[in-house]
Amino acid sequence: MKDMSEGYTTADGRKIGGTMMEMKNITLRFGGVVAIKDISFDIREGEIRAIIGPNGAGKSSMLNVISGFYIPSEGEVWFHGSKRPQMKPYQVAQQGIARTFQNIALFKGMSTLDNMMTGRMTRMKSSMAQQAMWWGKAQKEESEHREAVEKIIDFLEIQAIRKTPVGRLPYGLQKRVELGRALAAEPKLLLLDEPMAGMNVEEKEDMSRFILDVNDEFGTTIALIEHDMGVVMDLSDRVVVMDYGKKIGDGTPDEVRNNQDVIDAYLGVSHD
Ligand SMILES: Nc1ncnc2c1ncn2[C@@H]1O[C@H](COP(=O)(O)OP(=O)(O)O)[C@@H](O)[C@H]1O
Ligand SMILES: [Mg+2]
After folding, report:
1. pLDDT of res. 101
2. What angle do CA 55, 56, 61 make, to 5 degrees?
3. pLDDT digit string (tens) for 100-122?
4. Atom of ligand 1 at shortest range from CA of 57
5. How far, in Å, from the CA of 233 to the mean position of ligand 2?
6. How far from chain centre, in Å, is Cα 220?
7. Is residue 60 over pLDDT 60?
8. Torsional class of 68: left (φ above 0), alpha (ψ -120 to 50), beta (otherwise)
9. Quick check: CB of 89 below 6 Å from ligand 1?
10. Distance, CA of 118 to CA of 184 (rounded, Å)
11. Cys staple from 256: which of 44, 133, 210, 249, with CB 3.0 to 4.6 Å?
12. Going by CATH, does the domain composed of 1-96+187-272 fall within 3.40.50.300?
């Protein structure tokens, strides 16, 4: 049983549960560069958690540690109450963590539908050999995966582009397809690296609405990196602020907005 006494209720009445993920004293070095310096923070069940900070602050590196793309030099990653051993990214994915990338990473020549099907990989049970021997079983599995993907296509309102090669889509729609591929894995924790970067105002509004709907309708916990402060303030329950690899703030949007260190280091400077 989840201990709800650890949780809290948001201003808009959503119930946030206990701790899902805990980063404990994470340090990450690349040769002489220290990308992350001794950072600790938690992510709670059902929460929308933002990570903000200037370019080069170490935000993407932090998401890469959570997703298993980078192994921290020091510190521990705890997930659902136990310390995570060193894992490959696909093993982390199998634990129910999916992500999108700062630079879109889709198969440009493949259709929206096929790109989203690749998001089902971690859930596929039949191996190639099994598929050869038990054709019927594999076909049944294939159609179940297709059904799950079609539901997400409806949810994201991208029916009209389901057969279109993603390389031909405008940027904002590609970002939406990438979100769709992550959702196809039916993650418990969704990691979004700058989901709205490079979008126009209308595209940002659409993406914001989808992020809120994913959290609300699927109960998905979300950690996102975002530069647009307005978006962060509107979307997130709690915010971690990073600067030069260090954590300089952590709290509700209002708390970090009024934190002098944050104002000095981040809000005071332009990022455009
Ligand atoms: N794979 C890597 N190899 C070497 N240095 C890296 C690597 N990834 C990130 N860094 C460095 O770590 C620092 C933080 O980068 P990053 O996490 O991308 O910041 P942010 O996402 O906040 O802009 C930067 O100095 C960057 O050059
Ligand atoms: Mg980044």
Report:
1. 86
2. 120
3. 988 888 999 999 999 999 988 77
4. 22
5. 19
6. 10
7. yes
8. left
9. no
10. 8
11. 249
12. yes
Burial class for 114, CB neighbours closer than 10 Å (0-12, 13-18, 19+): middle
**Lookup: tokens for 18:** 């206990």
pLDDT tens figures, 167-225: 999 999 999 999 999 999 999 999 999 999 889 999 999 999 999 999 999 999 999 99
- Residue of 16, 248, 56, 194 lying closest to 256 (CA atoms): 248
> Quick one: tokens of 214?
């994913």
Please tell me whether the overall predicted TM-score, pTM, comes out greater than 0.70 for this model.
Answer: yes
CA distance 240 to 251: 7
Phi, psi dihedral angles at 269 (to 5 degrees): -110, 150
- Which has more confidence, 10 or 154? 154
Phi-psi region of 30 (alpha: psi -120 to 50; beta: other; left: phi over 0): beta
In degrees and rounded to multiples of 5, residue 254 shows phi and psi of -65, -40
* Ligand 1 pocket check for 39: Cβ under 6 Å: no
Where do the domains of the chain lie? 1-96+187-272, 110-186
